[in-house]
Structures are given as C-alpha cells and as structure tokens.
Amino acid sequence: MFSTWRIALFLLIVSSIVWLGGINVRAMIGDDMLKPGTLEIEEYLSPEAEREIFRLLSLSSLVVLASYCVVLLSSMVFLATSPFKLKEHGWLLMSAILLYLFVPMEIFTFYLDAKMIYHEFMTTADNTVFRELFSARVAALSGAPIIAMLCYYTIICLSVFQPFKKVHPQSP
Q1: CB count, 10 Å around CB of 50?
Q2: Which residues is 89 bridged to in the sheet?
Q3: What are the structural domain ranges in the chain?
Q4: pTM of the model
Q5: DSSP assignment of 16-85, as one string?
Q6: pLDDT tens per residue across span 49-69
Q7: pLDDT tens-digit profile of 104-114?
Q8: DSSP string of 99-157?
C-alpha cells in the first residue's frame, strides 16, 4: 500500500526533473540571445526571432514556475510524513537546507518571470518591454541563481550517496 510520504517522494522526483530541466532549457534559450561574456543582446537577431525567443522563455518559465511549486509542496509533505529522522539522515537535512535556503531568491526571480509571462499572454507588449525584463532577470541578484542551481545539483548528489547517515551498531 502506498503511503503519503511515498506519493510525495514520487511527485518530488518527477517535478524536480521537470523543474531542473526547465531551468536548463531556459538558460540555453536565453544564452543564445546574449553576446558571449556580456549581458548585451545580439544585434543580428531580427525582431521576429527575438520575439519568438521571448515567447519560448515565457513558456519555459511557466513550466519552471509550476514545477517548482510542486517541488516545494511535495518536499514539505515528504519531510513531514516520511519515517526518516533528520538527526539520523544528515544528507536529508542538508538537502532540505539547500532547497529552502534559496526560496526567497526563487520567489524574486519568479516575480520577474511572472511579469514576462503576463506580458506574453495578456498584453501586446513590444520587444522593448521583454528586453528590459530579460535584462533584469539575467542580472538579478548578481549570480545567485547560478549558485542556487549548483546547490540543487548538490542535492541530487547528496540523495544518491547519502553521506552523514547515522549507522546504528549491530546488536549481537
């Protein structure tokens, strides 16, 4: 019989895959717009191509936003209902700390993404509005989103190798 923590763990794993994949897709799409090593947008892009890139960024941000919400909710349910004690499973404690440490930063960047999503689907804004939002998103928090992404990948390593797991001595 499936229990609540197992369902939450399944949702956590699936939504994490979608979320981290969406982050990488969004980063690759956005990186194609920038001149290498700068935060300046390439001049050779036609306005139509630039608009399509902004549309793709908005769509991927929508997927990232939805999957991140599922990650947060399922992780809270998992931590609240799982039989794993944080005192005995240091890897789980470290993973939770790394995940929840960057929630304020994610909320701020999601605010910028939500503005882009709003302008994409609810208004007829021109490329200038999207350029401003894209520049603000890329320059947001001086590289903290990149550090957060590295921490998220560290969570995967912690979950696989499970260091700091308290081993109980075998009774004779």
Answers
A1: 17
A2: 165
A3: 4-161
A4: 0.90
A5: HHHHHHHHHHHHHHHHHHBPTTSSPBPSSS-HHHHHHHHHHHHHHHHHHHHHHHHHHHHHHHHHHH-S--
A6: 999 999 999 999 999 999 999
A7: 999 999 999 99
A8: HHHTHHHHHHHHHHHHHHHHHHHH----HHHHHHHHHHHHHGGGGHHHHHHHHHHHHHH
